[in-house]
Amino acid sequence: MLMNMNLLDQLKAQTKVVADSGDFESMKKFKPLDATTNPSLIYTAAQDLKYAALIDDAIAFAKHQSTNKQTQVSLALDRLIIDFGLEILKIVPGRVSTEVDARLSFDIEGTMKKARELISLYEDAGIDRERILIKIASTWEGIKAAEQLTKEGIHCNMTLLFSLSQAIASAEAGVQLVSPFVGRILDWYIKNNGGKHVSPAEEPGVMLVKNIYNYYKKFGYKTEVMAASFRNIGEIMELSGCDLMTISPEFLSDLEQGEGMLERKLLPEKAKESTMEKMELDEKKFRWMMNEDAMATEKLAEGIRKFTEDLVKLENIIIKRLQGKKN
């Protein structure tokens, strides 16, 4: 029967497929279970005229709530992010991931405050918090904030994750989900290894996801693994069986058109046979392991900077609209 199914349908039978997009039409087409957004995706979508009504709603909300210009910008930004989430939740049956301001990545209290505010906005709109994942950068501070939020019943998605140490610390914190960035890891290794390419099975990002999956399943962690940031279809096929994968519309389309048998590569029973040993991880060891991992350190910092850059661009769109300018 599987031979009569395209690659996307076969993948959906093995893995929860999540849309990595801010575009509603692509979600309607590919019918993912969940969806994930980030500041870069929302900034791109916000420039499309078909989403102008969402920006108008955010501006109106901010003006109604406050007369202070700086406060209005912050309120409008949060509302815009939530409005995208609300529209997505009309399409997907499961959860949406909504990101905390990247500028709070090293601020435990600030991260928790913003996460609570976002959840409150969703709940005011009638959305149960079970359908929301708050995305937080996988810094030590981010993980500690997520640990406390988890205790409050706020589910977290640890993003910008590039190392086993980040994954283990997140699982120890009891978070709902981690998002290892497969493609960005590949980008770093190609750049730092003279442009050398390897097969998908040998890619360091693919191997990291397999290690995280095996570690979690072997030692009984409930934290879900959602592979993210793909650069080719081969990576996706090598990670079939992962708890979740967040995939761009481009690759969802390629998978939908793809034919052949998709072999499941990740299995809980195989993970339990892994020879990996359990690691004890405190803050000192976490920071040392990150220091020793140039790729993880550089990509985490770069990701925070990029998300911040696009957040500022979003704020500039909002500032212009608050001033009555259309662009």
Structure, described:
With 327 residues, the chain is of the alpha/beta class. It has a single domain, classed as Alpha-Beta Barrel (TIM Barrel). Helices cover 55% and strands 11% of the residues. It contains 15 helices and eight strands. It has helices spanning 7-14, 24-30, 39-46, 52-65, 69-89, 108-124, 140-151, 164-172, 182-192, 204-218, 233-238, 249-257, 268-271, 283-292, 294-322; strands at residues 16-20, 34-36, 96-99, 132-137, 156-161, 177-180, 224-227, 244-247. It has an eight-stranded parallel beta barrel with strand order 1-2-3-4-5-6-7-8, surrounded by nine helices. Helix 3 (39-46) runs parallel beside helix 15 (294-322) and helix 8 packs parallel to helix 10. It is globular. The model has no long low-confidence stretch (mean pLDDT 94).
Helices and strands, with pairings:
Elements: H1 7-14, E1 16-20, H2 24-30, E2 34-36, H3 39-46, H4 52-65, H5 69-89, E3 96-99, H6 108-124, E4 132-137, H7 140-151, E5 156-161, H8 164-172, E6 177-180, H9 182-192, H10 204-218, E7 224-227, H11 233-238, E8 244-247, H12 249-257, H13 268-271, H14 283-292, H15 294-322
Parallel strand pairs: 1-2, 1-8, 2-3, 3-4, 4-5, 5-6, 6-7, 7-8
Helix pairs in contact: 3-15, 4-5, 5-15, 6-7, 8-10, 9-10
